[in-house]
Amino acid sequence: MLDPALLAESLEDLYEHAPCGYLSMLSDATVIKVNRTACDWIGRPVESVVGSRFHDLVTVGGRVYYETHIAPLLTMQGSVRQLSLDLVRVHEPPMPVLIDAVRRVVSTTSGKVELTRVTIANATQRRTYERELLEARRRAEAALAQVRTLRGLLPLCAWCRRIRNDSGSWEQLELYIREHTDAEFTHGICADCQREQFSTSSSADI
Question: How far is CA 90 from the centre of its chain?
Fold first, then answer.
C-alpha cells in the first residue's frame, strides 16, 4: 500500500519542481508567474524573472519569431504547439527548448484578464539528434554525388591508363574508383595475358 505521505504532495510543489518549465504572462508578454524549474534553467531567481517580458528570456532570433509568429497565432487561435526557441541562460550557452502556450481569460477581483500559460521543455537532445540527421543526410548526398560522377565522362589516359581526378592530378584508375565508390580490387591474371606472358617466357628459355 502506498504511503499516504507520497499522495500528499502539494500542487505548489508539483508546479515548482515539474520536469518542465512553467510560466504565465499577460497579453503584453509580461511574466507574472514562473516555476523554479524554468528559473534554474535560466540561472536567475524568481523575482528577477517575474516582471520581465517573455522576449527577455529568449535569443534575438526568438524575439523576432515571437513578434512575427507566436503572438499573432495566440491572438488568432489562442494556442501554439511545439515551437522551437532558444532560452537565454546567464552562465551557459542558450538552451534549445520547445514551447506550448494557451491563452485564457481569467476572472479577477478587478475584472477579466487575458493570461497566456506557457510550458517549456528542454529540447537539447532533440536538437542534437536533428543536427546529426542533417549531417548524415549531407554525407549521404555527398557520397551519392561522388558515385554519380562515375556515370559521366571520365578523363582516362589512353597510354598509361591513369585517370584525372577532381583536382586535376593523374592517379591510378584503381585508386580513383576506390575513393569514389565502395569497390575494392583483387588482382589476378586473365587468360589472354597468361598465354602472352607464359608463351614469351617459354620462348626466351628455349
Answer: 23
Q: Is there a single domain that holds both residue 75 and residue 171? A: no
Residue 68 reports pLDDT greater than 70? yes
195 within domain boundaries: no
When divided into structural domains, the chain yields a total of 2
Do residues 43 and 92 lie in contact, with contact meaning Cβ atoms separated by under 8 Å? yes
Q: What is the dihedral of CA 145, 151, 152, 158, to 10 degrees?
A: 120
Assess whether 19 and 81 both reside in one domain.
Answer: yes
pLDDT tens by residue, 140-177 = 887 777 665 566 677 888 888 888 887 888 988 888 87
Q: Which residue has the cell 508567474?
A: 33
What is the three-state SS of 9-37? CCHHHHHHCCCCEEEEEECCCEEEEECHH
Q: How far is 73 from 79, CA to CA, in rounded Å? A: 7
Cβ contacts of 150 within 8 Å, gap of 6 or more:
177, 180, 181
Closest CA to 132 of 121, 140, 143: 140
Mean pLDDT of 61-77: 93
